[in-house]
Structures are given as C-alpha cells and as structure tokens.
Amino acid sequence: MKFFRSLAGYTIAGLLVMSVWDGLGAYGIFGGYLAAIIIIGPLWFMNHYVNLTGNEDANGFVDMGLAIGVAGLMRDTLMKGTDALVGSIPTISLVILGAVLGGIVAAAFEKSMAKEAERDANAPEPGMTEKELSRLVSEE
Amino acid sequence: MTLSLGIATMLGGFLFPFVIRMAWGKMVDSWGPIGGWIAAAFIVGTVWCINHGIATPMITQSGAAWVDQGLAAGVGVWVASVLVGGNVRKSLPTISASVCGGILAGVILSLFL
Q1: For residue B73, pLDDT beyond 60
Q2: Contact check, Cβ <8 Å, A10/B100
C-alpha cells in the first residue's frame, strides 16, 4: 500500500512539472517563477508536508525531484527515441556528479552549523560573545 | 559540450541540492507550511532561472532528452540526508517508487504531448 501511495505522489509530480512548466516557461523568467509557485508549491505540500510519499525522518530523504528528473528523461526518450537519451548522457552524468558533491558539502556545512548551535546552547548565559565562549572553553 | 560548459553544468547540479538543504527546512521551521511555498517560489524558481531559464543556462542540454535540475535535487538531497545519518536500506523502497513514478509519468506524458 505504501509503495502505491508513494508511486501516486511521485507520478503526479513528474506529470505536472514536465507538462505545465514547459507551457509557462515559454513566458520566460516570470513564467518560471509562476510555475514554481503554482506547481512546486502544492506538490511539495502534498508530497512532503502531508507526506504522501511516505519519507521517514530516520531514512534517506527521497525528494520528488528524482521522479521529476526521470519523468523528463522518459518522456523525451519515448517521444524522440533512444538517441535522445544517449545524447543526454554527458549532461546527466555531470548533473549527478555535481549533485553528489553538493550533497556532501551541504552535509558537512550542516554538521558544522549544528556544532556551533550546540556550543551556543550550552553557553552558561545567553548573549555571550564568541570571544567569551572561546575563553570559557579553553579554561575547561 | 566544451570543458567550460561541462564545469558549469556540474556546478549547476551542485547548486540546487545545496541551496535546498541549506534553506528549505529552515524556512518551514520558521514560517510553517507557507515557508515551503516561499521556498518553492524562491529556491526552485530562482535556481531554475540560472539552471534553465536564462538565455545561456548553467545546465547545458547535451542531447534531446530533457535533463531537469530536479534530478540534481533528488540525488543531492538524498546524499546529504544519508551523510547526516539517514538510513540507506530503508529508503530504497521510496527510491524505487520515485523512479517507477517518474517512468510512469513519462509514459503517460508521451500519450498526449
């Protein structure tokens, strides 16, 4: 059941983005913003805030973007032939490589920020400056 | 694709999941569900402009099959969530549902577009 629940959410995401966005994208940058609001807004709400797709906090998070990306590739492969997909392999690989790097760097930065937040939360009194905090830590 | 365009394409893929991880969750924490709509408009919308919208976009399409920045979001956000402690094995059913959903959506779109 949960699989079909997720499947429905991801399918609708791929379906709407890869059709309506192209229509609005024809109006340039502002069409893109309008598309982001009227498509990604409600789809994010349904898939990730209401959590139709069934992501759990303890597990790796699967964004609906994955389904959207696959939908775009699949649509053009079916409509333009496999040559279209083969031609896109360089872009696909580079985008995935960049995304993996982005994920690694984001996770590293999140850990660094969490460490700072923890340090601030453990401060003996609120509103201490970084200098005072560092002095306290070095005295311990 | 030239080397310059290739580097730009890779950095375009870097940019989207990075900004999502840095800001989206915090916007929802700060402003509730409406924060997600603001994120949709100003993270997806603005990054879409540089990756796809402007005349010479950051993500160069090397072939005729459309490579969306959503692919970068799917991959990058998953990698980041795993690195901060997300379970890989338990997310596999969701990944398969997502890929199947994308394929199904592509099939349905090819029926009428």
Answers
A1: yes
A2: yes
What residues in B contact A73, CB-CB < 8 Å? Answer: 65-67, 71, 102, 106
Label each residue of B58-112 as H, E or C: CCCCCCCCCCCHHHHHHHHHHHHHHHCCCECHHHHHHHHHHHHHHHHHHHHHHHH
In angstroms, the separation between the Cα of residue A124 and the nearest Cα of chain B is 25
Strands (E), A78-140: none
Reported pTM: 0.92
pLDDT tens-digit readout, A9-32: 999 999 999 999 999 988 999 999
How far apart are the C-alpha atoms of B63 and B12, rounded to whole Å? 17
The CA-atom distances, in angstroms, between B77 and each of A105, B15, B93 are: 11, 11, 17
In one letter, which amino acid is B28? V
Alpha-carbon gap: A138 to the closest alpha carbon of chain B (Å): 28
Q: Which residues of A touch B45 (CB under 8 A)?
A: 32-33, 35-37, 40
- Measured distance CA(A23)–CA(A39) in Å, rounded: 12
Task: Determine whether A123 is exposed, middle or buried from the number of CB atoms within 10 Å of its CB (0-12, 13-18, 19+).
Answer: middle
CA-CA-CA-CA torsion for B61, B64, B66, B72, nearest 10 degrees? -50
Name chain A contacts of B12, Cβ cutoff 8 Å.
95, 98
The token pair that represents A101 in the structure block = 């790097």
**Residue from A11, A12, A33 nearest A21 by CA:** A33
